[in-house]
Amino acid sequence: MRKIATILFLFVFSLGIFGQTSDALQISQLSGDFYIFTTYQTYKDTKVPANGMYLVTNEGVVMFDLPWDKTQMQPLLNHIKAKHNKEVVMTVSTHFHEDRTNGIEFLKSKDVKTYTTKKTDELSQKNGYERAEFLLEKDTNFTIGQYKFQTFYPGEGHAPDNIVIWFPNEKILYGGCFIKSTEAADIGNLSHANINEWDKSIKKVQKKFKNRKFIIPGHEGWASTKSLEHTLKLIKESKQKTKS
Fold it and tell me: What is the Cα–Cα distance from 195 to 210, expressed in whole angstroms?
């Protein structure tokens, strides 16, 4: 009986490490060494998911955006260590809002290299959000281990500083909150948005990054590769509502 109980305990424990860790933190493999993590916060009385991504390289794990629920930062690090036996070595946050920058100070205390653009840092400082250690002055190409990626500022949209990240070999576009999921019913939070420039910025991304295999939005699902088109549709609807 004791042997059975031990086996059951180990089975449940392994699920916690290698599967979806909890209701508060969901982790899904996107493709190969790319993983999506999702945490939740309440926005306008509704539980809203926020997506981030991490990439496992030969030189360690790179994280793109951080858990909106910062209480899930340590569980996420624990999961990464247990599953991949690697440490997070750097992060890139795609704009200054809390669902992208929560936990930067915690990671800095663990000697993780944290990056944002200079514009993001200015807005983080102005609004009292957490600030990265390293600042990107312009669009930047990175090679970390066996992977390459580049940051791209398309212009204003969801926020004045929103960037996207492109993985040229894998054709993965990580969009953050600049790109809306096809599951989104409206354009969402416009508190720092430039609705008149957003569609122009989306079209720059469409033109620059072709043959996209995956597009990861900041919130909700990523199964569709039509989220850029859907974002344009939502922007158009939002403009029409403003005029009426």
Answer: 24
Contact 62, 144 (CB under 8 A): yes
Residues recognised as catalytic: 95, 97, 99, 158, 189
Alpha-carbon distance of 113 to 66, in angstroms, equals: 13
CA gap 70, 6 in Å, rounded: 32
Candidates 3.30.110.30, 3.60.15.10, 3.40.640.10, 2.60.200.30; CATH matching 21-243: 3.60.15.10
Q: How much is the CA Rg of the chain, to the nearest whole Å? A: 18
Tell me the pLDDT tens digit for each residue of 62-96.
999 999 999 999 999 999 999 999 999 999 999 99
Angle at 125 between CA 124 and CA 131, to 5 degrees: 60
The pLDDT tens digits for 193-236 are 999 999 999 999 999 999 999 999 999 999 999 999 999 999 99
Q: Where are the domains of the chain?
A: 21-243
State the DSSP code for 40. Answer: E
